[in-house]
Amino acid sequence: MCRLIFIAVFTVISIFCQAQTRVQFRVDMSKPVEIGLFEPLSGDHIIIRGSFNNWQGDDYILYDKGSDYIFSGDFSIEEDPGASVEYKFVILKAAGKNLWEKYPDPDNPPNGNRVFILDTGYQELGPVKYHFDKYYLALAGKEVIFSVEEMQQDFNQMRQTLENEHCCLYEYTSKEIFDSLFQHQYELITAPLHPHEFYNILSPITAKIGCMHTAVWMPGGFWDMQPDNLFPLRVKLIEDYVVVAGSYIDTIQVPAGSIILEINGKPVHEIIGEMRKNISADALNIHFVNSQIEKRFPMIYARRYGFPEKYRLTYALPGQKTRTTIELSPANIQSVRADVFKNFNHPPLKLEILEQKNTAIMKIPSFIFYDRVDYFKHFLDSSFTLIREKEIGNLLLDLRGNDGGDPFCAVPLLAYLEHEPVPYFAEPYGRYAEFANPVHLAKNHFTGNLYTLLDGYCGSTNGHFAALLKYHKIGKIIGTPTGATYKCNAG
Hints:
By secondary structure, the chain is of the alpha+beta class. The protein has helices spanning 2-17, 30-34, 148-165, 175-186, 195-207, 220-225, 268-276, 286-305, 333-340, 373-389, 407-417, 461-471; strands spanning 21-28, 45-50, 61-62, 70-77, 84-92, 98-100, 114-117, 123-129, 233-238, 241-247, 259-263, 266-267, 311-316, 323-328, 350-354, 359-363, 394-398, 449-454, 476-479. A hairpin with a 5-residue loop joins β5 (84-92) and β6 (98-100). α5 (195-207) runs antiparallel to α8 (286-305) and α8 runs antiparallel to α9. The longest helix has 20 residues, at 286-305.
C-alpha cells in the first residue's frame, strides 16, 4: 500500500513541475508581401516551427492583428525556465509549399535557427524581419541575382573553408597555382550575377582539388526556379561524339544513336569542354568526369548555362551526315533526379546462376545501403552459399554504374573474394578503423575464377574496392578505366 501511495504522489509532483511559459512571437512580413512572396489574401499563412513542436506541424499560426504586416501569436511553451528554445518562421503557401526562413541567425550554426532563453513570465519577442532565401524570388516571378558583396562574402568563406579544413588541398594542384586561381576567379566578380554565373566562378576551383567529394552544388531553391525546364535527352560520350542514349520524358523526340552537334547554336564539343572544367574527380580522373557528364547532363547543363527559354537541338541521324534541327520539349527535375539518384533508393541486388556454363552473375549497382547493411550482408551470405552448394567455378561480378557507398558493405564482399586476409584501409580511419586490420575470410569465400566488370562511374567506396582487387590480383578486371584511384583525396 505504501508503494502505491508513493507512486501517486510522485506523479502529482511531476505534473505540477512541468513548466509552461506564454510567449508572443512577432514577425515583420512587409517585404515578402511587397515582392509577392507572401499573399495572405490568397490563403498563405505564416507559422512557427521549432524545438518546442519538433519542427513540424501547422498549428502555430500568426495573424496580422493591426493590418500593418506585423504578424503575431501567443503560445504556451512547455519547457523549463532557462531552457534554450530554437525556432524559425515558415511561410505556408496556399498550394502547400513550405518556405522556411534562410539562416536568420548567422551566430547560431549550423542551421542559423533563431534562439531565445525561456523566462519565468510572459515574454514578447520581436518583431523581427522574415529572412527569405533569395531563390524564393523566382516563386514570385522575380529575377534571382546576387550582388557583388554577397558573392565576395561567399567566395571568401569558401576559400577560408577549403584552406583551413580540407585535408589534401594541394595534393594535385600546388599552393602557388591555387593562390593564383583564387585571385583570378575572385577578380571575375565585378557585377551582379545569376546563380549559374556565380557557379561558373566557384566550380573551377573545387574541380582543381582532385577530390570527387569536394564540389560546388546548387541548393534546392535553384531547381525550384524552373523545375519543368531541363534538357530532356540522355547522352553517352563515345570517342569524340555526344550520342543520344534515351530520354527523360515519354516522347521520343530524337532517335537513339543520333549524334548531337549543337544545343542552342553552341557546338556540343565546346559545351562538353566547358562542363569538364566544373566537375570534381579524384586525381582529376577524366573517366569519372566524363561519366558524370553522361549521368547528370541535364543538371550540369543547368548549373553551367541556367534555364534557357528553349532547347534548340541540331543533330545527325545514325549513319547519316544530314543535319536536322528541332526544338525539344523539356523534362522536369523529378524525372531527371529519379534517374541520376537512383542508386540512393536501394537498387536491387541480383544473382543469376547459369549452371550449364558453370557461371554465376552477380550485379551490385551500389554500396549505398547505409541503413540496410544487414540486408546487404544477407544477400552476400545467401548468394555465396548457393554458389558453393552448386560448385560454381566462374563468377562475373558486375559493378558498372556503382559510384560508391558504405564500406561496411564493400568489406564483407571483399571477405568472400580475397585469397587471404588483407586490410581494407591502409591506416585507421574514423569509425572504419577496424578495416585497417586484415579482413577475415568469409565462411563460403569464393575460390573459383573471378571476372569483375567496371566502368568510369566506379568511384568512392567502389573505387577503394576495385583498387584492392587490382593491387592484390584478385581475379581479372574487364571494362573501361574506373573513375577512381588507389587513394581517395576526400576533404
